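Our collaborator T.R. sent over the components below with a one-line note: 'Predict the complex.' Nothing else. No constraints on interfaces, no templates requested, no preferences about which chain binds where. So this is a plain run: every listed entity goes in together, and whatever single assembly comes back becomes the starting point for the next discussion.
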Amino acid sequence: MMDRMNKRWIAVVVIWAAALVLNYWNISEMYRIREAREQKVFLTMDEQFLRAHSEEISESLKKREAFFHSAEALNLGLLTVENELAALAAQYDLTEVGVRSQLDQDTGSSIPLVLSCEGSLKKVVECLEALRSEHAYVPVTKVAIEIDGRGAPARCEVRLNYRYRIVRPETQT
Amino acid sequence: MRRFRKRSTPITLIGNDEIYFVLQGGSGEGQILDPLTFDRVLTDEADLSAIPETFHHQAHSVMVVPDYWLESLSFPFQSRKRSLAEAFLERKLRADFPEIPEVRDFYEYFFHQGDEGETAVYAYFLRDPTFFQLYDQLARWNLHPRRITTPAFLWASQLRERIPDFHKGGNAFVHILSKECFLYFFFEGHFLFSRQITLPEFQGDASDQLETLTYEINQSLYLFSQKAKAEVDRVYMASFGHVEVGELSGKLGREVEEVAGLEEELTKVSTTIGQPGLLSGLYLPDLSQSQKFLSIYHRLTEKEQQWKPVQKVGIAVGFILLFLLAGEGLLLWQWSRPVGTETTRGGGAKAREAVAALRQYNEALDLFLKENQRPSADKTIINLARALPEDVWIKDMVVETEPTPGVALTGTVRAEKPSQFRETLSEFLDGLKEHFEGTRSLGLQDIEVDTSNCKAVDGGQSCVIALKFGLP
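Returned assembly:
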C-alpha cells in the first residue's frame, strides 16, 4: 500500500523535477541564444565600424606608436634616449647636463628618468617644449627650477617617464 | 455508439471457514471459483499457487467477511474534527485490544447525533484475529482487498433504498431460506447485530420452522432492547415463499412487512450466490459501486485513496508540462544551432581580429585623451612668467604634471612701502587667475609671506613669499 503510494509520490517528484530542470535548461538556452545574437550584432557593428574608419584607426594606431619607444632591449633603449636627451639639452645651450635612470622603479613598460641641466629659463622652456613635441615617449612628470637671482641661470631637474616597448628586430617600427 | 464493457470485479467472500473467490460482472452476476479452506491459506507453507490463477493479476476490490468478525462501539465525542476522532479511536482501540495491534488499522466511523442533540462517534472495527492473519497472507501475495464489508452492510444499503424511514428508530430484517434464517437488526439506520439461525427440516407444514423462528426473533428483540435501549419499531421480511407474512405476524403478535421489490430482484439467479451456509442468501449487488454500502479500509489504503487523485493529477500535469517544455527545448535547440554556427564557423578568427583592433584603438584613444589632459610643463612655466608682476621674481619653482598636477613656488616680492605689498600680490594673483583655471579661488590668504625674513633693498623692502596651487 505504502509502496504504491510512495512510488506515485516518487513519480510525481521525478516528473516535476525533470520539468523544472528542463525549464531551467530552456531559460539558459534562451539567454544563450540572445547573447549569441547580441554578440553577432555587436560583431557586425564592429566590422562595419572598422571598415568605415579603417584609415582613422590605422592613423591613430601609428600615432600611438609615437608615445612608446621601441627597442630591442631595455638598456639599448635607455642608452638611446639618454643620448637623445643630452643632445637635445646641448642643442638649447644647456650646460651641466646629466641624465640618470631609476631602474629600480621599472614597471615593465616605463622607467622614470631624471634630466638635470643649467641654463637660461627661456632655453629651459624651449627645451621642454621640444621635448614635448618631438619626444612623446618621455613625457615630463615634474620640473623643479631654482634661480638664485634676477638674470642668474636656472638650475633645473626634469623628471621624465620613459615609455618603452621591447620588440623583436623584424617587428620594430 | 459502442458501449464500454465493464470490467469484472474480483471479490473475496469468507464463510464457513472457507474463502470463495468470485469474479463479478458489471450487472452483478458472479462466477464463483472453488473455495479454499483456511488451512490451505493460513499456513507458512502456503504459496500463491493455492489461489486460482485467474485472481493473480487482478486488483482485489472487496472482501465480504462474516458479520461476527465485526464489532461496533459508540461514545460521546464533542468535536466533529476527523483528525481528532481518528486519533482518539486509534488510542482507544489500542487500549481496549492491546493483544491485537492491527485492530487500529481497520475501522470506519461516523459522527452521530442523539435525540437530545449530543454528538457521538459510532465506529465499526474488525477484531477477529483470523481476519488479520488472512489479510496479511493475502497482502504478502499482493491480493489484499481494498475494502472490507459484511453482508449486514450490503443489506443495509438495499434496505435504505427501499424503506423510507429506515434511518429512524429500530428495524429488524428477517431473511428466510429453506434451512436457515438470518436476522439483521439496525438502529437509526446503522447495523447493530445479526444472527444466523438453523431452521428445522420442512416436513409438510412450516409450523416447526415458525415456532423456532418466533422464539429466536423474540430473543433477538430482547437483545436489541438491551443493546439499543429502545424497541424495534418495524420488522421486515424476505422469505421467498418459505413462510407467509401473515403467519409470522400472527406468531409474533406484531406486524411484519415485506420489502417491496426485494424478492423479485433477489430471485434473479445472476445476483445471488448459490452456496450453503452464510453465503446461501447473500445478496450480491454490484460491489464496484463502493459509495453504495459501508466498507472498512485499511487506514493506509484509505490514505492512499485520498491522495491518489492528487498524485494522478500531479503526474498528469507534470507530464503535460514536461511535454510542452520538451517541445520548447527542441525548438530552442533548433534555433540555437544557426546562431551558434554563425558565430563560430570561420567567424571566430575574424571576430577576434576585430575585437583586438578595436581594443587597440580604444587604448590609443584613452592614451590621447590622457596626454591631452596632462598639463604641459613648458606652457605652465610660460604662463607663470606672464603672470609675474615687475616686483615679484621666482626663486624656486616645482611644476608637477603627474600624478597630482600642481605648482609650488617660492619667490621674493619687493615694495617701497608696506601698502604696496598688497597691491603687488593682488596683481600677481590676478595674473595667475588670468592664466590658470585652477587659481580662481586663490586669495591673498593663500600666499604665505615670511615677514620675519624681510630685507631692506634699494629704499624698499623685499620679503619671501610661497604659494601652491593645483593645475586642472
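Summary for T.R.: The beta strands of chain A are 69-71, 95-101, 110-119, 140-147, 154-166.
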